[in-house]
Amino acid sequence: MAAKTKCKAQLLSGNEACVQGALVAGIRFFAGYPITPSTEVAEGLAEELPKIGGRFIQMEDEIASMGAVIGASLAGLKSMTATSGPGFSLKQENIGFAAMTEVPCVVVNVQRYGPSTGLPTSPAQGDIMQARWGTHGDHPVVALMPASVRETFDLTVEAVNLAEELRTPVIILLDEVVGHMRERVELPAAEDVELFNRVKPTESPDTFLPYKPAANLVPPMPAYGDGYRFHATGLVHDETGFPCGKGADGNTLVRRLQAKVEQRQPKIARAETFQTEDAEIVIVAAGSVARSARAAVKEARAQGIKLGLVRPITAWPFPEEAIDSVAQTAKALIVAEMNLGQMILEVERIAAGRAPVFGLNRIDAELITPEDIIVRAQEVTNNVR
Amino acid sequence: MSVKDLVDRYCRVDKLPHIWCPGCGNGIIMGAVIRALDKTDFDQDKTVIVSGIGCSSRAPGYMNFDTLHTTHGRALAYATGVKFARPDLNVVVLTGDGDCSAIGGNHLIHAARRNIDLTVVVFNNSIYGMTGGQFSPLTPAHSYASTAPYGSIDRNFDLCKLVQAAGGTYVARSTAYHARQLVNLIATGLNHKGFAFIEVVTQCPMYYGRRNKFPSPVDMLKWQQEHAVPVKAAAKLSPEQMAGKFLIGELHREEAPEYTAVYETDVIAKARGDIN
Ligand SMILES: Cc1ncc(C[n+]2csc(CCOP(=O)(O)OP(=O)(O)O)c2C)c(N)n1
Ligand code: SF4
């Protein structure tokens, strides 16, 4: 293995790490609309992209931003937008368009308290289900949930790579705490980061079918201007890319879109586990809540309570294997989340009664603390005894 | 070029015949766009046609270019992305009156304000055709629509004035009847460096015509002929004589910095420290 270039440590916020990750991953187009707590992503890219010949544009709203990002990606640039709650809601129709037309793009959503304007600067994790089902109709989704500044960098790179590889929108679900907290990090040198570029067709334009999938179910993608003269439409289309108005073609297309992500579930879906081997109670927590949960596990063990942690890194596809495994060994699972119970639905589905599943939910705009988790763990211990 | 040669070169012949109703003006306008493109020296492989949703927005599907049929109202946002990402591409937007002035109205004024180099052709048939004849922001006040069974009380836009006020640097209007003038106006718009906007007053015999007492598409074309006044002729008419009529021809043209060019010469140059 080649020697890794050493990089000096720097103090960065999650949002700033997201900017760095985007630049290293090859993002060359950003369109956005300001909204707390995601604005630093736009500000960082407004400063950095022009230095490398990239494009930054502030659009008139989030709908336009999402549209511009899709247009730019079709024109061949790796493209991204960033937003929070209300803006994420506005982007949904065009996210569906990107899924349907298989246009790679990355959507950063720094979650904030909702619904509606809610509490603009307060943390929440209320968009887990919106990330999955926000746009209408069946569609594939990839959504990543970093829990630290360094991981925000890594997962931003991964989001860009996955979007390019799968030709589908990829969502980065930050929460306000991770987006704004500062940590000392050492980022890898750009040349040590593995990148994926969308596969271009090798066929001549005369025989090329723009929506004919390769063996991995993903069709090669030319850029506008490459001479392929292809059509992109949100209508149900066949392999030619043109609408046909036939339900059978919809059946083929939407099932393929779903399958191209689903068949990679084992590769994409990921969770970190911490002290789960002998754990009697396992906490399931993501993003900033997982940081409290990790502290709680250590503290509880010092008190003699056998706590463990599963931290989903991907929200979608959900890391089924990790939950499946603790559902067989633990006495109970506690899903801690800053919402009234979204991730818990997935955990219950996978646990399927093998271990009882309890919620720990806060929506008072305060972080779930290690103490909250320990108290809940004690309650649950008494409950399942 | 003969019509057959134009069709063979610029249309996706296997996608024809089109879905439009007999007598619809959309085919005339698509034909005018194709003739205008033929008059330019645009490379067909470097030209992208973008549309929203509506009967008119189906046109790109029949055109042999890179084409993008987006979401309702958002064609200009997508087109902005294409053009800003690749300023070397020629980007043409085909849109309906509802698509660009109602749901897409905000994108319209902002694209005009930026003076980004797009050529926009609006198929103004005064109605929402695709959804079966509801009124649009361009439906003349007091005319009838499926959602205005007692006549629309909404006042209609003058879209050309709106675009000019917003910063569009080339603004023109014509009709499906004035097809030859239309070709020239679109061609000038295509060659214009900046935001070029061409409104085409056209007919939807199926929904607007039926409800508003036009027995046939020909009557609608006649109406266009009788109510459209060329800019020069209008200068000699009094406001009373112009009442109920509308202007056609080139309404506005100015030179102004174009968005993607300024991004290069200003933003990128400053960011790289070439200028300060
Ligand atoms: C978000 C959204 N809202 C509503 C619609 C339904 N819709 C489809 S086309 C259309 C109006 C089209 O009218 P216009 O833009 O004037 O085009 P025309 O069909 O007359 O050419 C509407 C309301 C839609 N497709 N998407
Ligand atoms: S409904 Fe109207 S606009 Fe649509 S195709 Fe028919 S005539 Fe044309």
What does this structure look like?
The complex is a heterodimer of chains A (385) and B (276). Chain A is α/β, with parallel strands linked by helices and 385 residues long. Chain A has 2 domains: 10-192, 3-Layer(aba) Sandwich (Rossmann fold); 270-384, Rossmann fold (3-Layer(aba) Sandwich). Chain A is built from 13 helices and 15 strands. In chain A, strands 3-2-4-5-7-6-13 form a 7-stranded mixed sheet, sandwiched between helices. In chain A, strands 10-12-11-14-15 form a 5-stranded mixed sheet, sandwiched between helices. A two-stranded antiparallel sheet of chain A has the order 1-8. In chain A, helix 6 (149-166) links the parallel strand 6 and strand 7 (169-175). Chain A starts with 9 loop residues before the first strand and ends with a helix. The mean pLDDT of chain A is 96. Chain B is of the alpha/beta class. Chain B has one domain: Rossmann fold (3-Layer(aba) Sandwich). Chain B has 12 helices and 8 strands. Chain B has helices at residues 3-10, 26-39, 75-85, 97-103, 105-114, 159-166, 179-191, 205-211, 217-227, 231-234, 239-242, 259-271, and strands at residues 47-51, 66-69, 90-96, 119-124, 170-175, 196-201, 228-230, 246-253. In chain B, helix 7 (179-191) links the parallel strand 5 (170-175) and strand 6 (196-201). Chain B is globular and about 65 Å long. The N and C termini of chain B lie far apart (50 Å). The model of chain B has no long low-confidence stretch (mean pLDDT 98). At the A-B interface, strand 3, helix 3, helix 4 and strand 9 of A face strand 2, helix 3, helix 5 and helix 12 of B. Strand 9 of chain A pairs parallel with strand 2 of chain B, so a sheet runs across the interface. Bound molecules: thiamine diphosphate and iron/sulfur cluster. Residues 20-21, 24, 26, 55, 125, 129, 204-207 of chain B line the site of iron/sulfur cluster (SF4).
